[in-house]
Sequence to fold (438 residues):
Amino acid sequence: MKRQSDRLEDRSLNLTGSFTKAAIIFPMMSVLAFVLFTAAFFQGTSTLKSLFFVSATILTFFALLNALKIALICRSKLGRTNRIFDFLSGISVKNTDSLMESLLDTALALIPECDRGSVAIAVAEDNRIWRFAAVKGYSNRLLDLRVNPEHLYPVSNKVQEIERVWEYNQLMPEEIKRVFEASGSRDIVRSLAVGIGRDDKIIGSFFLDTTKDVKFSNDSKRILQSLALISSIIVELNHSREKELKYRKEAMRLLLSILEARDSYTHGHSERVARTAALIARKLGLKEDEVNHTYWAGILHDIGKLVIPENILKKPGPLTSEEWQIIKQHPEHGEDFVKRFTALGHLAIFIRHHHERYDGSGYPDNLMADSIPVISRIIAVADAFDAMLSVRVYKPSLKIEEAIDELKRGAGTQFDPTVVKAFLELEEVIKSRQNKVV
Fold:
């Protein structure tokens, strides 16, 4: 049996029925009450005057009740709408699991009949195996479960109400049923289920469950339908972003391979600089997207050397002043090069400034201290460390202790001292280069 509060809540949330009726009745009653009050005022006999006055008072009372009803419905609807806007405003580029957890929290907050829920999504492109990305009200054991979607409730892109839950549970393989029951599914009375779509196929599902003997309102079903649509759109966008990132990485690897083909010194150098720079960035507490930018800017920091003549790049002796001026142009060439690619343009500024010096005596713009982008300052340290440990045709490599001493001496003049300090705390990087010459 529903509690009285549940029944009142259901009635107050029926927008299409109660709100419409209240909105029509309120002005009608108000007008009629006004007419009766006017008639009572002008009516000569006391009996009719009293009758009109009592009737007008009763109508006014019911008019006020309908006005209150409209206010309650609007407040309830506004509360739900605000929760939806809170969710939408909080959407950012997240991993799939945290996105699904946010969606599930929102669904349970907006649909009062449900007290538990889960979201399952496909593990791989073939869609044969699903996993649970988020659960609420169940044991986290479900998060480790891998299941064929055929063993779950049947889902489509329309919300379905599942009433004979126990029948579906009996169709599950025994080992999966045991996990569900141990996770807390024994007392589920009924459920709502709707698919999450991508590329015109179902790749996941919302499952909202209740342990109470209640009926789901049409309002609740419409809310879940809307949330499923929102989640499908976001999953599609995230999938497109993943494909974009894949193509972007392939493009950057291709550019790097072209550079390495021209300059044998560059082979392996850019990868080592990128890995070290990313570790420094994480050590400094940069956000994860900034760490990724640091890595890929490190990969491409020397890409401007593609336009430097080979006879200068591979010259066995010291460079002339004219040749040195040409070499010093490679950060600007690199910036111009990556700007041509929409997917790489955000890295351009870091590549341009990776040869600036902390004291302002670097190139190409003589920036100093914090006016140099922090990612460029990080790459400068990682680049210099790897260069000092590398053998070149015109110089031998330094020992690792000598390279570390050079970084310490350059802190505050050539290098950002905070970046140098963070680098020196990366014991795994230093140990990995111990006694290794490249």
In short: The longest strand covers residues 201-210.
